[in-house]
Design brief:
2 strands; DNA polymerase, domain 1; mainly alpha; elongated; 42% helix; 2 domains
Length: 231
């Protein structure tokens, strides 16, 4: 006989509270610079508020519009995604316990223990335990004022004259995280000009780039590496 407080029911309610909650936003300097530069490509109306995101995000109308873009939202706060659920081995047996695993993408500067405490407070159920499953990967950043960054920017501007080069934080995982821990600078660099259809195919069905992008991308990489080697 089903009961309202079975382990799966408690877990589902806890996850629902977490997914409906909002972590406080925080604007990193790199993120502010990105949106300041992007705003210069927009109309005055579309780019309004991007010059001071910290202030603008306190405005309900701007916040709702900004946070509706999942990419933008993930750049200003830590995010959670439910990736694994486990309960009974049989559909007709109510399990004594149920578990969920979440993928948490931390904003640089956030503390894993503070995040775990925040999750416990949001869930607000003493019967639901929250644990950090493995050693957290603490986010790190490379500054946009290095010789490597300048070489990449120069190569991109030759590839597409008039292009605006701006630093952007990646809201997914990158091996650059490992290199930075070794004291090296690391940046994502994809010197391709993609249309919307090509962007939508990234990590999806029929993922590919055009032959032109492949040829030009190799050329840009070569130019950038030669400049660094000669510098």
């Amino acid at each position: 006989m089903p009961w309202p407080d079975t382990a799966p029911n408690r877990l589902v309610r806890a996850l629902n509270r977490l997914l409906e909650a909002e972590r406080p936003t925080r604007v990193l300097p790199e993120v502010q610079e990105f949106f300041t530069r992007v705003a210069g490509l927009m109309s005055a109306e579309s780019g309004a508020g991007y010059d001071d995101l910290g202030r603008s995000l306190r405005d309900p109308e701007f916040r709702a519009r900004f946070m509706s873009n999942r990419q933008y939202a993930a750049m200003v706060r830590t995010t959670f995604a439910v990736t694994m659920l486990r309960g009974s081995e049989k559909s007709n047996v109510i399990p004594p316990e149920a578990t969920a695993q979440l993928d948490c993408r931390m904003l640089a500067g956030d503390d894993p223990e503070e995040i775990a405490a925040w999750v416990r407070g949001v869930i607000a159920d003493e019967h639901v335990q929250v644990e950090i499953a493995r050693e957290p990967k603490i986010p790190n950043l490379s500054p946009p004022d290095t010789e490597l960054y300048k070489a990449m920017a120069d190569a991109l501007q030759r590839r597409a004259p008039g292009v605006v080069v701006a630093p952007m934080i990646l809201v997914a995982f990158t091996d650059n995280w490992v290199f930075r821990r070794c004291g090296l600078h690391g940046y994502g660099f994809s010197p391709f000009i993609l249309d919307e259809a090509e962007v939508q195919r990234i990590h999806g069905n029929d993922e590919r780039i055009s032959l032109e992008n492949l040829r030009e991308g190799v050329r840009v990489y070569t130019e950038m590496l030669l400049k660094i080697a000669g510098g």
